[in-house]
Amino acid sequence: MRVVSLLPAATEIVGILGQLDALVGVSHECDYPPAVNAKPRVTHCPIHGAGLSSAAIDRWVRETLATTGTLYRLDEPLLRRLQPDIILTQRLCDVCAVDFGSVTAFAATLPGPPQVVNLEPSCLADIFENIRCVGRVLGVPGRADGAVNALVERVQAVQARWAHVAHRPKCFLMEWIDPPYCSGHWGPELVELAGGIEPLGLKGKDSTRIPWERVLEAQPEVIVLACCGHRPQRTLADLPILRRYPAWESLPAVQSGRVYVVDGSAYFSRPGPRIVDSLEILAEIIRPDLFTGNFPDRGVLCVETANSCL
Question: By CB distance 3.0 to 4.6 Å, which of 50, 64, 242, 253 could disulfide with 223?
């Protein structure tokens, strides 16, 4: 069986199922587990690594989708040489991968043709079902069930820890700084499962640009900067922009020093096995009195010090 993954999350699912040897090609963004970095890259993004500002990235994404309908390019000659039996992709978000229509149209021209598997999660339950789906397709359903059961146990352990706590802090999970975006899909659910309340997020829906005035109205007690596709150091570069927003210093989260930078690329933006790591990160941020020291260090930074705080 020869598998191509067009999604970092799908690649991680293949990894947790112990099937990396079947993986013959990955997207330009796939980087975990580390072994996949030696795999051929079958997609390309024109601005990948270009060092654009967040505002410029947002503008390019909107304009490119409006004019061409896709942000990425398939390496079609390479895909033909790889002769995949299965292509793992999605049609949930055109910002995250090659558009689904292009993938299915090209796959139809390949020998076989290969099976195109659509992974389209909007919540944690969908992510777990995606793991089971890939397990069935790869012929290892038992491994998939075991992996999901272990993840569910971790989710339940987090919930049990704060279940009898009365106060649930308002936590704004911010997916982009310039311009401001609230979280969507599984993001608000993660906040709730971690013991917080997401006053701005859109559970099960697309992340959306919001006026800064809405953040001021929400008065979040905690702010978590989980910029889509950004590593923590890249997000830190946008902090001067955030601090220039009107009345930033007046927000409860800022006044109490509870603004955090997390790895949006590795965790929060990827609907794969490490989404439960994202939950544990949030639990430790939102309820440090209950969770500090309970989980591995995953590079969370305090905004005011830019140092590791968990």
Answer: 253
